[in-house]
UniProtKB/TrEMBL annotation, chain A:
Family from the record: Belongs to the aspartate/ornithine carbamoyltransferase superfamily. ATCase family.
Gene name as annotated: pyrB
Domain Aspartate/ornithine carbamoyltransferase Asp/Orn-binding: 149-297
EC number: 2.1.3.2
Entry superkingdom: Bacteria
Sites where the protein binds L-aspartate: 80, 162, 224
Organism: Sunxiuqinia dokdonensis
Keyword Transferase: yes
UniProt protein name: Aspartate carbamoyltransferase
Keyword Transferase: yes
Transmembrane segments: none
Pathway it works in: Pyrimidine metabolism; UMP biosynthesis via de novo pathway; (S)-dihydroorotate from bicarbonate: step 2/3
Swiss-Prot/TrEMBL catalytic activity: carbamoyl phosphate + L-aspartate = N-carbamoyl-L-aspartate + phosphate + H(+)
InterPro entries according to UniProt: Asp/Orn_carbamoyltranf_P-bd (IPR006132), Asp/Orn_carbamoylTrfase (IPR006130), Asp/Orn_carbamoylTrfase_sf (IPR036901), Asp_carbamoyltransf (IPR002082), Asp_carbamoyltransf_Asp/Orn-bd (IPR006131)
One Gene Ontology CC term in the entry: cytosol
TrEMBL record, chain B:
Cofactor: Zn(2+)
Organism from which the protein derives: Sunxiuqinia dokdonensis
Protein name: Aspartate carbamoyltransferase regulatory chain
GO CC terms in record: aspartate carbamoyltransferase complex
Function: Involved in allosteric regulation of aspartate carbamoyltransferase.
Encoding gene (name): pyrI
Binding site residues for Zn(2+): 112, 117, 140, 143
Record InterPro entries: Asp_carbamoyltransf_reg_N (IPR020545), Asp_carbamoylTrfase_reg (IPR002801), Asp_carbamoyltrfase_reg_C (IPR020542), Asp_carbatrfase_reg_C_sf (IPR036792), Asp_carbatrfase_reg_N_sf (IPR036793)
Residue span, Aspartate carbamoyltransferase regulatory subunit C-terminal domain: 105-151
Keywords, sorted A to Z: Metal-binding, Pyrimidine biosynthesis, Transferase, Zinc
Length: 303, 155
């Protein structure tokens, strides 16, 4: 069977990315397209994620689909000890599409193997969150008009931040990107991604200091240092306040430069940045609905 | 000493038809038996562990009568017995010698090193792509994390 699951960002080709971008632009122009009429989408959130769930459920609603599911595992049969295998086997007989968030890594790939209907990964632990990457890409394309020759700065938790890893992999498929990584020693970009970039001959630079080097940037991608990723709370305390973006730092940046953040932010972007036209993170979240409408259309061949 | 070796030969006697798997690290003997499902076979098996060998100070050997292995099966033991050698015996003669080779994919056998991987919480057969054979480096199909040779645990 050739189901169009979306589990990992690398499941999609460059052509798939561009097709999703086109469709997302179309949904942005006209968000209410009843392509899901008569269809049921299962929204299975084994751990709570309000932002991602509401974005998906808004996308499904705007497309005229019905939603079944749960928003955390406490209110599902998991609390009775049902395996993921059995939950997915059952749900795939009810619904036309499964959107799943799960705390364990690899759970989405496994669910796709078990399910007879397409599965869209809405985050599997620290592993993958491909719909976030596609909405990040849509935000980049909207603000930069291209994926080629971009200078991308990634700041904060580059070690555990899955969004930066997936974005790096996706943008590496395009022409001549340059990456700049700004992170403390403990939260550096993992070696495997640097090896990947070297093998592809893509330029990247690593920095410890968050200074006026961002004047070169087309995109500054900020991330939150997530407490839950640390086994040692002392380590978290050491690095949580290291990099904070302030409005004064934006003075000499390029006019086309935009600041992205997957949200929620804590304090890594000072609130005085919000008024700057280069702050793009709230529009970015809005783009998530259009990107997810496009992803659903792609998974179910609706367009 | 000579007498000792003679006695040993008697214990692990020659076979007329079958496979001799030599140069297994002694500590991996029972894992090899289990991976090749020799614990389920009805064929005669003799094995010895903690034997002297030029290469391994502490090797094990398995002799299985009337049983021959496909390369794919035999390569499954490469992860724990990378220097194992197989002698194919017909009528008491070695007719073919084989060495094991680390396969491109490892299905089952190894546990994923990532404690948060779904394969460690549900009964799922693990599956890895081998991204390096020396030293062995495995990438989990599910969680996409790397398990290094030093971290490998046999399931």
């Amino acid at each position: 069977m050739n189901k169009k699951d979306l589990i990992s960002i690398m499941d999609y080709s460059k052509e798939d990315y561009l097709r999703i971008m086109d469709m997302a632009a179309d949904f942005e122009e006209n968000p209410n397209q009843t392509l899901l009429e008569g269809k049921v989408v299962a929204s299975l959130f084994f751990e709570p994620s309000t932002r991602t769930r509401l974005s998906f459920e808004t996308a499904i609603s705007r497309m005229g689909g019905r939603i079944v599911g749960f928003s955390d595992s406490g209110s599902s049969s998991v609390s009775k000890g049902e395996t993921l295998h059995d939950t997915i086997r059952m749900v795939s007989q009810y619904a036309d599409l499964i959107v799943m968030r799960h705390p364990l890594e690899g759970s989405a790939r496994y669910a796709a193997e078990v399910s007879s209907v397409p599965v869209i990964n809405a985050g599997d632990g620290a592993n993958q969150h491909p719909t976030q990457t596609l909405l990040d890409m849509y935000s980049i394309l909207k603000t930069q008009k291209t994926f080629d020759n971009l200078n991308i700065f990634m700041v904060g938790d580059l070690r555990y931040g899955r969004t930066v890893h997936s974005l790096l992999m996706a943008l590496s498929q395009f022409e001549n990107p340059i990456f700049n990584f700004i992170a403390p020693e403990e939260l550096q970009m993992p070696e495997e991604y640097k090896i990947y970039l070297r093998e592809k001959g893509i330029r990247f630079f690593e920095h410890r200091e968050f200074t006026d080097i961002i004047s070169e940037a087309d995109i500054v991608y900020m991330t939150r240092v997530q407490k839950e990723r640390f086994s040692d709370p002392m380590e978290y305390e050491k690095v949580k306040n290291v990099y904070i973006l302030k409005n004064s730092m934006l003075k000499h940046t390029k006019p086309n430069m935009r600041i992205l953040h997957p949200l929620p932010r804590v304090n890594e972007i000072a609130t005085d940045v919000d008024q700057n036209e280069k702050a793009y993170y709230f529009q970015q979240a809005r783009n998530g609905v259009f990107a997810r409408e496009a992803i659903i259309s792609h998974a179910l061949n609706l367009k | 000493m000579k007498e000792h070796k003679k006695k040993l030969k008697l214990k692990v006697s020659a076979i007329s038809e079958g496979t001799v798997i030599d140069h297994i690290p002694s500590e991996s003997l029972f894992d090899v038996i289990s991976i090749l499902e020799l614990d389920k076979t009805r064929n005669m098996i003799t094995f010895g562990a903690n034997l002297d060998s030029g290469k391994l100070t502490n090797k094990a050997i398995i002799k299985v009568s009337n049983q021959f292995f496909e390369n794919d099966d035999i390569n499954r033991i490469a992860l724990i017995a990378p220097h194992a050698k197989l002698n194919i015996i017909r009528d008491y003669e070695v007719v073919e010698k084989k060495v094991v080779e680390v396969p491109d994919r490892v299905i089952g056998i190894v546990k994923c090193f990532n404690p948060k991987c779904i394969t460690n919480s549900e009964p799922i057969t693990t599956s890895f792509s081998v991204i390096s054979k020396q030293p062995i480096t495995l990438k989990c199909k599910y969680c996409e994390k790397i398990t290094h040779e030093k971290q490998m645990v046999i399931r």
